[in-house]
Amino acid sequence: MSKVLIIGAGGVGNVVAHKCVQAAETFSEVLLATRTRAKADSIAAQINSPRLTTARLDADNVAETVALIRSFQPAIVINVALPYQDLAIMDACLETGVHYLDTANYEPPHLAKFEYSWQWAYHDRFKERGIIAVLGCGFDPGVTGIFTAHALKHHFDEIHYLDIIDCNAGSHGQAFATNFNPEINIREITQKGRYYENGSWIETEPLSIHRDVTYPHIGPRDSYLLFHEELESLVKHIPHLKRARFWMTFSQQYITHLRVLENVGMTRIDPVVYEGKEIVPLQFLKAVLPEPSSLGENYEGQTSIGCQIRGIKDGKEKTYFIYNNCDHAVCYREVKAQAISYTTGVPAMLGAKMVLDGKWTGAGVYNVEQFNPDPFLAELGGYGLPWHEEVNGALAFE
Ligand code: NDP
Questions:
Q1: Top mutation candidate among 82, 87, 100, 183 for ligand 1, by most atoms within 8 Å of CB
Q2: Who has greater pLDDT, 191 or 353?
């Protein structure tokens, strides 16, 4: 039984708090800390458990986080604030000797670039301190890496082709909204696409390559090739990969809004001077868009995220598909969140549970595919994300 500190009380933080309180056998006390304390308080009022308390914290300030960790004494910190805070929170964990877990890799605020180099550079320091940092333990990155590790352990001798497919077929009734933090989401989508093939990274213009992909229980949806952070770690950790790609669905309405916003300069991340004050257009846009945590109430439909894999087993070619479908309305009934927050928050809680239950061990900085996938996948369905597999079926891609 251990204490957990959750940092960030947005859409994902809400789900992590609900799930940590549910998993009472592992998490004895839960502290939800965030920049705007009222948000943590409103989540706590909804959960209404004596084991959950809240605090105000600016996690950009390492000394503040160190002081909070020293007074609460958690065994692990779950970081579901923004990627900008990753390094500051890792510094605080190093100083206090506490395990760390996040769901998105570090991005410098003034450069729309996400890669693992900054966080991988902490490996030796975490190792020397005898603590573990689990990187990217949401759904994607997160479960997609664990699905791939499971495929390699139980279904293949060599994985050659990996396509991660991510569909949100839900409808929230808003003309335009993002399902997780709008600033991070729009920075990700407006970047160049990238995929790995035969030892090199191939760059593509943003949203320029798309295919119809048929998703289970949903049907065909237009899916766009994007760079997504788990590609970088999977290419490093899964041997024999010849190609790795990531696909995500977007509606025409979403893409039209995004293009207009880009064309008028609202997705810029460099400051502009407005009435004598510097503002960043994308940050201003975030302030006028709906909060991801507010989308749940009228959300209908499902998400479907999975890995389509082709490779070799016992000298023969084999195909394999592993996926989860998640229903927005069912999530809302359970924890007052939409499925994107839910599919991120459940794995974050479960990754922390793996560390505290002694099922994921080691010291240093690790991506999720480096751990044993079995105990994680054994519990994932029980916490609301059942998974399914199809062996030697037809895949969406050659
Ligand atoms: P939200 O914007 O809803 O929530 C972010 C929260 O972090 C807010 O409560 C915000 O506080 C808080 N925060 C921001 N800056 C600080 C700071 N300096 N100190 C303390 N708290 C801070 O985002 P989401 O909940 O949708 O997403 C959370 C994270 O999950 C993001 O990093 C996102 O990239 C990641 N994610 C990962 C996915 C995956 O599958 N791996 C999928 C979806 C999201 P305030 O309200 O005051 O701004």
A1: 82
A2: 353
Model-level pTM? 0.96
Per-residue pLDDT reduced to its tens digit, 27-61? 999 999 999 999 999 999 999 999 999 999 999 99
Mutate which of 181, 226, 233 for ligand 1 pocket (most atoms within 8 A of beta carbon): 181
Q: Identify residue 31 by its one-letter amino acid code.
A: L
Go through the domains of the chain in sequence order and give each one's CATH number. Answer: 2-135 (3.40.50.720), 143-335+385-391 (3.30.360.10)
Task: Using alpha carbons, select from 10, 18, 4 the residue that is nearest to residue 383.
Answer: 18
Q: What is the pLDDT of residue 166?
A: 98
Looking at residue 26, its pLDDT comes to 98
For the CA of 103, the nearest atom of ligand 1:
41
Return the sign of the alpha-carbon dihedral for residues 91, 92, 93, 95: positive
**Separation of alpha carbons 384 and 381, rounded Å:** 5
Task: Please report which confidence band the pLDDT of residue 320 belongs to, taking 50, 70 and 90 as the band edges.
Answer: very high
**Ligand 1, CB cutoff 6 Å, lining residues:** 7-13, 34-36, 39, 57-60, 80-83, 85, 103-104, 138-142, 180-181, 184, 291-293, 340-341, 344
21 — phi, psi (to 5°)? -65, -40
Helix (H) or strand (E) holding 327: strand 316-327
Q: Which residue has the higher pLDDT, 398 or 1?
A: 398
Question: What is the distance in A from the centroid of ligand 1 to the CA of 165?
Answer: 23
pLDDT digits (tens, 9 = 90+) for 253-306: 999 999 999 999 999 999 999 999 999 999 999 999 998 888 888 899 999 999
Question: In angstroms, what is the span from residue 396 Cα to ligand 1's centroid?
Answer: 32
DSSP letters spanning 138-197: BTTTBHHHHHHHHHHHHT-SEEEEEEEEEEE--B-S-SS--SS-HHHHHHHHTSPEEEEE
C-beta neighbour count of 391 within 10 angstroms: 11
Take residue 12 and report the two structure tokens written for it. Answer: 């994902």
Cα–Cα nearest to 347, from 102, 179, 148? 102
**How many Cβ atoms are within 10 Å of 158's Cβ, its own excluded?**
14
